[in-house]
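lol ok so funny story. i was supposed to be doing the assay writeup but got distracted and ended up predicting the structure for this chain instead. priorities right. anyway since i did it might as well share w the group, maybe its usefull for someone
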Amino acid sequence: MTHQELLTADVIRTAVTNYLDAVSAGPSRTIAALYAEDATLEDPVGGEVRVGREAIEAFYSALDGVDCKTELLTVRVSGNNAAFHFRVVTEIDGKAYAIEPIDVMTFDDRGAIASMRAYWSPSDMTEL
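and the output, tada:
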């Protein structure tokens, strides 16, 4: 592995951390700003594919004002791609819920998210 590849992996790991921090803190425009202008988002996989930063911001607007905490469990980087397993804990109607999706992201040359696919289903959500 070359020095440049190590820097790229570090940049991608930082981008994943920045994404999870933004999901925790919001708002949706901050999360969407991490995406390339023409990025795609499929969350969950098999659902609607959202295209473009405006559609992505609209998707994340469901998190605006929601108490949400994220924790990175593991990340793997290969080239301009990352797969990562993380935990999200949210409170809905006074009850806490956790879900541990696996997201797969591709990054453009600037380190912006070019595509994101989230692997999870509603049956994966547990009440704490």
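The chain has a mean pLDDT of 93. Helices lie at 3-25, 28-32, 53-60.
back to the writeup now i swear
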